[in-house]
Structure formats: structure tokens, C-alpha cells
Amino acid sequence: MRFRFTHDSIDTAEARRELLDLGAGGYAAFEGWVRDHNEGQEVTRLEYEAFEELAVTEGDRIVAEALRRYPIKRALCIHRIGALALGDMAVWVGVSSAHRGEAFDACRFIIDEVKHRVPIWKKEHYRNGDSGWVNCERCATAPQHAHTHA
């Protein structure tokens, strides 16, 4: 699998090992962390939900596109779901390639496409007690998704 979810902390050392290739001289990774603010609100924690079956299919499609589009050896994306605290890693993307340039380019392509195309919903919890679903309109909607959008 090239794209997957986890409820646990992302093991970046293990993920990096999955990308090892004797033909690769370059490696690039991206880590997305939970920050303490968004659009003027103080964030205290996040929750991620996903339409997992569709999300994995689309995530795999994105990684496969990167493998076709860029001369890279291997690529992997891991996204957390569930409750995350400030500072937790929410998403990790890694790419190995013969040279660094294509690794950087493919890594950026993967994270940008995942953020845009994969049905993952993020709920922010704010210091003032409010909460809200963020960027849901950019994702495909799951049939009969139960939450309301802020």
C-alpha cells in the first residue's frame, strides 16, 4: 500500500525504511503538524475523520500518479485519523529517487494532491470552547456523512 491511515503516532523511521532503494541517492519527506492557530482562532486540538475506503483508493491513485509523473523510486503517504494534540504529526509523505530534485517535486505533488482530493475531514477545537470542521468543501463528500459543517 502506498497510502494508508493510522490511529497511532506515525513511525517515521519505519516509513523511511519502506522507501529504501539501492538506486536512490535522494530522499525527501514532509511532516504536517498540528499547530495552535488557524484563521485567527486559537486551536487546542484536532480530530480527523475519513471515508477510509474511498480515501485509500484516491491516496493510492495520487502516489501512483507521482510515480508516473516523476522519475522516483518509491513513495509513501501516511495520514493520522482520530484525535490529535498540538504538536502531533498529522501527515507524513516520503519519496526516494536517484536525485534530490525529483524527490522534492514528487513530495510536494503528493501532499498538495492529498490535501485537495482525499476525503479527509478536520475538526478544530478552539480555546474559546467552539469547534468547527475545516476545508470540508474541498474534499469529496462521503455518502450520508453525519457531521455538520461550520
Class by helix and strand content? Answer: alpha+beta
Number of strands: 9
Largest sheet: 5 strands, antiparallel
List the total number of helices. 3
Helix fraction by DSSP (H/I, runs of at least 4): 25-40%
Radius of gyration of CA atoms, rounded to a whole number: 16 Å
Taking pLDDT < 50 over at least 5 consecutive residues as the criterion, the unreliable ranges are 138-150
Q: What value does the average pLDDT take?
A: 91
End-to-end gap: 33 Å
Please state the overall shape, judged from the principal axes of the Cα atoms. Answer: elongated
- Following the backbone from N to C, one meets helices and strands in this order, namely EHEEEHEEEHEE
Strand content: 35-45%
List keywords for this structure.
150 residues, alpha+beta, 5-stranded antiparallel β-sheet, 4-stranded mixed β-sheet, 29% helix, 38% strand, disordered C terminus
What does this 3D model show about the protein?
There is one protein chain. Helix 2 runs antiparallel to helix 3 (100-117). The longest helix is centred in the middle third of the chain and has 18 residues, at 52-69. It contains 3 helices and 9 strands; from the N terminus they run βαβββαβββαββ. It is 29% helix and 38% strand. The N and C termini lie far apart (33 Å). The protein has helices spanning 12-18, 52-69, 100-117; strands spanning 3-6, 26-33, 37-38, 41-50, 72-80, 82-85, 89-97, 120-126, 131-134. It is α+β, with helices and mostly antiparallel strands and 150 residues long. The strands form 2 sheets. Strands 3, 4, 6, 8 and 9 form a 5-stranded antiparallel sheet that branches.
